[in-house]
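Table S2 (text version). Query chain:
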Amino acid sequence: MESLRLLLIALSLSTLAASSPIASSLLPRSDHQANFYSGPSCSGASYMSTVSDFGCGGTCHQFTTALQSVYLQDGGQGNKPTASCFASFDCSGEAVDSIGISGGANSCTNLHMDEYSCYLYDGC
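Corresponding structure-token output:
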């Protein structure tokens, strides 16, 4: 069932890319992941959500519960997956924390304060 869902997503993206004038930098381009947690040390009990396949264009992800830690996983494609996190709900203002990894690394980072949005991008 999961493989069928992934196939449908891939077909939808390829159809969208072929029929829409969307910049290729905004399409998924890697298998990086960012896992978000409401508690410190990326502990399983405080897991909130995962965002995968973010590209050069970057996207803002908002949370109603404060983030306290972020776990980045480098999928091997692209340059440097990065999460810039903010105290605001809309990625505005100055980033409180910026986390980046490269070279196949994985990293859990405890945030300096409660943060409610993160801008994810692959450092192109």
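Notes on Table S2: The first strand starts at residue 33 and ends at 37. DSSP finds one helix and six strands in the chain.
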